[in-house]
Specification:
By secondary structure, this protein is of the alpha/beta class. It has eleven helices and seven strands. Helix content is about 35%, strand content about 20%. Strands 3-2-1-4-5-7-6 form a seven-stranded mixed β-sheet, sandwiched between helices. It is globular, with a radius of gyration of 23 Å. It starts with a helix and ends with a helix.
């Protein structure tokens, strides 16, 4: 065999290396074995099944009982939404769940909400009677927004605690920007990297002690410092990003873990362990209580929330003045 022929074979094989990112057995096959897509961190099929099961437990009552975190974040999102002095005809609620944010909308602000969610059971959990505005429910994947709506078609897109399960967050933000009309609004909230740090730390220490190593049990989340950059890269302008925390007290770690399951917030990291030894969990519970327990015997759980506002560029938007064009010296003011 000639060296030239061998080189062609090697080059041909090299073109097919790393055909697709890490895919679990439950994930759909890649569209092409020569296409490299976004790195797959989460198994979206398993996440959909988790949320479907959570919404079906006891006819949805278990799911409604643990709405407290999302309802609180939706309330805080609504405060920011009401600060925007504009009336909207239709908004798109991306990753709406049963409608935590849309239930708070009033007719003097919005006429209709289009709710989009990948879990059809969760999407249809609550009746239309609980909404003041008209609602339209669309079963669709948040990662493929442009397959659901047309470009430049939406006045506003909101997202309440769903983007932390998206594999390609930069791509999702780009799609949201494309879906908006010029001068359209994006208002979102997602969990930040310090969410459930108490549980994460306790599980890691317990695993090191009992098993000699650690494995991921809590999903990786976006660092707050990255959100502004991601919004800017997606093409948004006039950005506003702020951070808040929701702290919840539980009798012990066990109640926290049970509530997370009822929320549909179980771990779906690809390559995760599917079980944890009972003695490791018992050790984690003891560590949790020892490190973070309060005087009344409860343990806190911290949910860090990143709120973001961005606008699609438009010619009529306010723009900053050119550098050096100011007429007032700050020294005179201060």
């Amino acid at each position: 065999m000639s060296l030239l022929h061998l080189a062609r074979q090697v080059r041909h094989v090299h073109q097919h290396v790393r055909a697709f990112a890490a895919i679990s057995s439950n994930s759909p096959p890649p569209p092409s074995f020569t296409t490299v897509g976004p790195y797959q961190v989460f198994d979206r099929n398993v996440k959909q099944m988790q949320r479907d099961k959570a919404a079906l437990r006891e006819g949805g009552e278990r799911s409604r009982t643990v709405d407290y975190v999302r309802d609180e974040v939706a309330d805080r999102m609504m405060e920011r939404f009401l600060d925007i002095k504009r009336k909207f005809g239709i908004i798109l609620d991306l990753g709406s769940g049963p409608g935590h944010f849309s239930k708070l909308l009033e007719l003097d602000k919005v006429e209709k909400s289009i709710m989009v969610d990948s879990s059809e059971t969760t999407l249809n959990r609550d009746p239309d009677a609980e909404f003041e505005v008209k609602v339209e429910r669309v079963h669709g994947d948040e990662e493929n927004l442009m397959k659901i709506v047309s470009p430049d078609s939406q006045e506003a897109v909101v997202s309440c605690l769903s983007l932390h399960w998206v594999n390609d967050l930069p791509g999702a933000l780009v799609q949201i920007q494309k879906a908006l009309k010029p001068d359209g609004l994006f208002l979102g909230a997602m969990f930040g990297g310090d969410t459930l740090f108490e549980l994460r730390t306790s599980l890691q220490l317990a695993e090191v002690e009992r098993e000699g190593g650690i494995s991921p049990h809590i999903s990786p989340m976006t660092d707050t410092r990255d959100i502004s950059n991601l919004l800017g890269r997606a093409g948004f302008t006039m950005l506003t990003v702020d951070i808040d925390e929701v702290k919840v007290a539980y009798p012990s770690m066990w109640e926290l873990v049970e509530d997370l399951q009822d929320m549909g917030e179980g771990n779906v990291v690809i390559g995760r362990r599917h079980f944890v030894h009972r003695d490791t969990l018992a050790a984690a519970s003891a560590i949790y209580k020892e490190m973070y327990g309060t005087g009344d015997g409860s343990v806190p759980a911290t949910f860090q929330v990143i709120y973001m506002i961005g606008w699609k560029p438009a010619p009529n938007q306010p723009k900053p003045l050119e550098r050096g064009s100011g007429q007032v010296n700050l020294k005179d003011v201060l």
